[in-house]
Amino acid sequence: MGFKTLLQEHNWYGRSRVTVPEPYNLQKLVRLLEALEVSQRAERENVADMQMRIMQEIDRHGISSLSRKDLRDICRVFFLPPRPPGREPELRDGIISAVWQLKRKPALYGLLDSYMDIAKTGDEDARILGRRLREILTQIEHESSVVWKKRDKDFAIFDMDRAPREIAKVILDGNREPSIVLSDAGLDNPHRQKGGLAITAFTEACRIAMKSKRENAVRLQKILSDWAHLHGEKFSYPEVWTEYSAALLSPWDSVRPEEEHKRWITERLLNVAGDPRTNPAQWRGLKERHAMAYGVILRWLTQDSFRQFFDIVTKMTDRLDMWEARRIFWTKYLNAEHISEAWVVFGEEGARLAKEAASRSDDKALLNFGKHNERRGRTSRHTALLMRIGDITIAEWSHNGAWNMWRRGSNTPVLYKKFYEADELMEGDERCVHNGDWERKIRHIILHETGERI
Q: How confident is the model at residue 90 (pLDDT cuts 50, 70, 90)?
């Protein structure tokens, strides 16, 4: 990164040609330039070599012998591996004392950066550094120290047991943009806004939102989503994806959100992690640590697949009377929550209509389906709905296709594949055509195999 690029990134390039920066902004610019110089030096001297060289100097001549640059650099890598000085009590305390005694402001800013980057609840070394920084800043009479004292007063920024929750509470109040609150708390550049303190505060906000109810849940989730996508990023805090997804889903375990909000949540989660049915690895943490929240997204996607099947097939059949009877029949099982999973398998025509519907509604969840190869009498207009009820798997075919059922352990079709041979979905352990009293026969089979009734 060059000088011009740095100025443009922090919006000082244009301003520098028409105005004189305010003193504190000028100080921030100087620190950014210092950070640039350090990063360029780090390219020539990696962290391990830097730590070894500076610590050898300390061993030979003591901390007071360090040059201004070396003291600043060791403060900037205070918690970085392979040998973080902030994790060695004697060395940690000696460096902090030297920064105070020698009145080295660049080194102090290095410690502040290290604290913001690593600070999280339960980190005793970060807690000690926070306490010492507070002590140092209370004894400094300088414009920048006044700013940090105010941040500590407003957000308890140097108290690791309080700071994350204080930041989270102010952001969730919704009176200011998340990025503005973060800047007010000292997390005033993209690096700090994704560092340890910001991650811990975001996690705390997720926990608060997770316990919210109804209207308040909608409000908090909107704010949390704005925070999760700082600077237009896809997702700013991948380390805590599980907590974020739980915060959006947990409030809806026993109540149903408005359809628009449900679609909003689904879109945001699937844009980041994909469909949990076809990309389960990204959702494993949620499934293992927040099983109820994971059940919510699966239930919603099952409902979406179910409705998508009937909506698309209705556009491709001439027998609306016959098709409406099937819709009513299976909707009873869906509403009774007997259908735990569902997946649609289209032919070419059905897939085309599904893509058009997704485009019209801007609902990317409608793009999640499988396709069959249009053999064994199946055409581009034939569609199958795969459903799981208890331990059985069902394939309900459109048009004149029969109903098929497989028991666990047989050649059961696998849900969530992108491509199927038509044969896979036509050779069930039980089979039923849709004539006569077909509803009674299917109800009896499902009751016998699963105990579920409607």
A: very high
